Amino acid sequence: MARIKFDYTNVKNFVNDHELAQMQTMVNTVDRDLREGTGVGSEMTGWIKLPTDYDQAEFARIQAAAKKIQSDSKVLVVIGIGGSYLGSRAAIDFLHEFYNNHLPDDQREFPQVLFAGNSISPAYINDLIKVIGDRDFSVNVISKSGTTTEPAIAFRIFKNLLERKYGQEGAKS
């Protein structure tokens, strides 16, 4: 695996060489712990083996779901808070031009992605529902526990909207 090269030329006025040398021991320890899967939090380091080692069946399910959402919906509501919300937001911002989400439906290649569950503001939810309007929409809930208040509230609201629009069975798909 390639190593990261650290160019510290621009910090030499602020950090002495001996301070950097002292940090090297910590860097080596963290590097070893990450590569060997040891240390605190080692159960959360599966990302290190990406993109070569991953659950291909899960990835296929995600791709199938993405195709279904793209074919069925003009809007995707992502429900989450904290990292669950911010990870999605960062990926979308990284992969698309900045105002892609604001283009009309016929000018976007993918559904408009809107976010819910990151606050308990009823005004935000009402405005979001107005933005969706009568367009077809899908919902993606991202939650580690499923019990965080803000996403739980948003899920219940959007589940109800899905069921009213598509019926109970239609909402499930």
UniProtKB/TrEMBL annotation:
This is Glucose-6-phosphate isomerase. Its EC number is 5.3.1.9. The gene is pgi_2. The keyword RNA-binding does not apply. It comes from Periweissella ghanensis. GO terms for molecular function: glucose-6-phosphate isomerase activity. It comes from the Bacteria. The lineage of its organism: Bacteria, Bacillati, Bacillota, Bacilli, Lactobacillales. Gene3D superfamilies: Glucose-6-phosphate isomerase like protein, domain 1. Keywords: Gluconeogenesis, Glycolysis, Isomerase. The keyword Isomerase applies. It is an enzyme of class 5 (isomerase).
